[in-house]
Design goal:
The chain is mainly alpha-helical. It is built from twelve helices and no strands.
Length: 161
């Protein structure tokens, strides 16, 4: 049993640093990740590089997605991409919203407001931080919840006066 655990840890560490050069290597990496247990994927999400994180953030298991966002090496660009993703779980969006360091970035705020899966209350809170251009885009959006669109229109009207 201990030998199995060791080989699992070794395999996770190897995959964590994997740098696929072409599509075939990327497909092999994806296949190896798919064969892992949930616990192994969670551990890999915490240790993995950008390539591994980009694969694991699309995992259907919420706890794996949460582990990706908790990776200490995750960058602002990755958080922005995750915040804009409509396939990511709402819990991941809540974790992004709780992290003040990530909310310092304007691009992350915009991505969160434009994501229909972001809780309405949080989107409304972030609207006041948006510039006029982004507010106009939110006001014209057909994909966002109605209260967010109405609030964006109201905020635009207030700023014009």
């Amino acid at each position: 049993m201990e030998l199995e655990e060791q080989s699992s840890d070794t395999r996770i560490r190897q995959l964590a640093g994997a740098q696929p050069g072409n599509d075939q290597e990327r497909a092999t990496l994806l296949l190896q990740i798919q064969r892992m247990t949930v616990a192994e994927r969670m551990k890999l999400a915490l240790l993995g590089n950008r390539e591994v994180r980009s694969i694991l953030i699309r995992d259907p298991v919420r706890s794996v997605q949460v582990s990706v966002i908790q990776n200490p090496r995750i960058t602002e660009k990755e958080v922005e991409r995750i915040a804009a993703s409509r396939s990511v779980d709402e819990e991941v969006l809540r974790l992004i919203l709780k992290n003040r360091d990530w909310l310092k970035y304007y691009s992350v705020k915009v991505a969160l407001v434009n994501n229909p899966r972001t809780p309405v209350k949080e989107s409304l809170r972030l609207l006041g931080h948006l510039r006029e251009k982004e507010l106009k885009e939110v006001a014209r959006s057909r994909n966002l919840p109605n209260p967010v669109v109405v609030a964006a229109k109201k905020l635009l009207a207030e700023r014009k006066t």
